[in-house]
Write a structure and sequence with these properties.
single chain; alpha/beta; Rossmann fold; Arc Repressor Mutant, subunit A; 2 domains; about 10% strand; globular
Length: about 210
């Protein structure tokens, strides 16, 4: 029997993933969670073989939730299943303890392949990204400025660079506009930049946005 927790704030995604895994695995129990608090509550009560975790969730995002999961159940495997491309979050997620990273546009067969490999103790990223990820994780060089940002700062940086206003960012991340402004100030200071345009140029230069 395989027990999996599917954490995503969109019901259609949870139901779709549950259908895919139930079609393949004969004996599987799939529970659902819509936010970080539910995830932590679930893993404290049940022993799961795997958590499928979205990044963009209300309240604490997936990367923050991942760290909480690891503090509660260090050996519990977590597969990030996100709408964000690997270039943006895969490295950060793997360094934080994720066992794998897949985008939501991956075919069902790849999701099953990832689950099988991770449950057996392995790690999984798409073949197209694996070489780049290994090089990034193994390199022993000075970090780039954006690698020194917190997970939330990194997320806000990408949203600013994509042209979203402070109000739009606040609504998306369930923050106040003032808090978003504070994040923006910290980001610019840490990266030694002055304007949103500088930030956007940096993000584009390092291919952090599709």
């Amino acid at each position: 029997m395989i027990k999996i927790l599917i954490a995503d704030d969109h019901s259609v995604v949870r139901k779709g993933v549950k259908h895919i895994i139930s079609e393949f695995f004969e004996k599987v129990v799939a529970h659902e969670a819509v936010n970080s608090a539910e995830v932590i509550e679930r893993i404290r009560k049940d022993d799961y073989d795997l958590v499928l975790l979205d990044i963009a969730m209300p309240g604490k995002d997936g990367l923050e939730t991942l760290k909480e999961i690891k503090s509660e159940r260090q050996k519990l495997p977590v597969l990030i299943l996100s709408m964000y491309p690997e270039e943006q979050f895969a490295l950060r997620a793997m360094k934080s303890g994720a066992s794998g990273y897949l985008t939501k546009d991956s075919i069902p067969e790849e999701l099953i392949k990832a689950i099988q490999k991770i449950i057996k103790g392995g790690k999984y990223v798409s073949e197209s990204f694996s070489d780049e990820l290994l090089v990034s994780m193994d390199r022993d060089v000075e970090q780039l400025p954006h690698e020194n940002l917190s997970d939330r700062e990194y997320q806000v940086m990408l949203m600013i660079a994509s042209g979203k206003t402070r109000k739009e960012i606040a609504e998306k991340l369930f923050l106040s506009v003032k808090t978003v402004s504070t994040y923006r100030t910290r980001i610019l200071e840490k990266m030694e930049l002055k304007t949103n345009a500088d930030l956007t140029n940096y993000v584009n230069k390092h291919n952090l946005v599709v």
